[in-house]
Amino acid sequence: MKKYLISVIFIFTLLFSLSAKAVKRGGDADMTPYLNESDARVVCKDIVDQIIQSPRIVRFSAKNNRDPVVTIGLIKDETGEFFDTQIIANSLKTAILKSGVLEFMANKDVRDEMRKEVVEQADHASEDQAKAMDEEDAADYMLTGSVKLMVQNNGKMQERTYIVNIELTDLQTHRTVDMFEPSEDVKDYLKKVAKIKSK
Question: Residue 37: how many CB atoms within 10 A of its CB?
């Protein structure tokens, strides 16, 4: 009886192991084969770390004696699977705020809401507390980019590789001054391997 129980436990352990290895995502074998928020956080922190070390950013800080202000523009979904690129935008924003080197300018929709609030304050708040119109800071750079998907089938297995590209553009000159992609250390988070579903 004891040998029988040991055999059953071994079989179940083996089956679980094989099932878990069917999907590989950033070192976590039990996740689904799609890019998610955890992947995005790791990838975007890596990209922001690269931005901080960009010669353009270093020169800007030295020349202006202040941290550069960055905002986020359009991140395109080119995966063909309706990926919500707001996940990338939010992860970039979080990494920027936590960097201690870059300042973040609120996106356009937020700025529009804040301007309405300033107008309301001009009409209703006390003069010494109301915020002044046309005294906003301005972003120095904008981050834009895209998320693409490359799919390769190999027998019953499918490898899905997400490709994240981010551009840094000078808002004064409209010149793209640098481009970034995830480093080799974190590219594993963008590769997923799973069994192909039977039709």
Answer: 11
Say how far apart CA 50 and CA 101 lie, in whole Å: 12
- Cβ–Cβ contacts within 10 Å for residue 28, how many? 12
pLDDT digits (tens, 9 = 90+) for 77-96: 999 988 999 999 999 999 99
CB of 158 within 8 A of CB of 151?
A: yes
Contacts of 98 (CB under 8 A, 6+ apart): 45
pTM exceeds 0.85: no
Assess contact for 157 and 198: CB atoms under 8 A.
no
50 within 8 A of 143, measured Cβ to Cβ: no
How many angstroms separate the CA atoms of 193 and 28, rounded?
Answer: 11
Alpha carbon distance 168, 127 (integer Å): 39
Structure tokens at 114: 């804040």
Q: Residue 85, Cβ neighbours under 10 Å: how many?
A: 18
Tokens of 59: 């020169």
The answer to whether the CB of 194 falls within 8 A of the CB of 154 is no
How far is Cα 107 from Cα 92, in angstroms, rounded to an integer? 12
pLDDT tens per residue across span 137-179: 899 999 999 999 999 998 889 999 999 999 999 999 999 999 9
